[in-house]
Amino acid sequence: MADVFTWPNGARLAMSFVINVEEGSEMTLADGDKRPEPVDELGVALKLPIRNYGNESNYQYGIKAGAPRVFGLFKKAGIRTTVTAAALSLERAPEVAAMVRDGGHEACSHGWRWVHQFSHDEAREREFIAKAVTSIEATTGTRPYGWLSRYLHTERTRRLLAEAGFTYHMDDYSDDVPRWDLVKTDGGNVPMVIVPYALDTNDMKFWLAPGYTPDQWLDYAVATFDQLYEEGAAAPKMMSLGLHLRIIGRPGRIGALARFIDHVQSKPDVWCATRLAIAEHFKTSVPAPT
Question: Is residue 1 part of a domain?
Answer without folding.
Answer: no
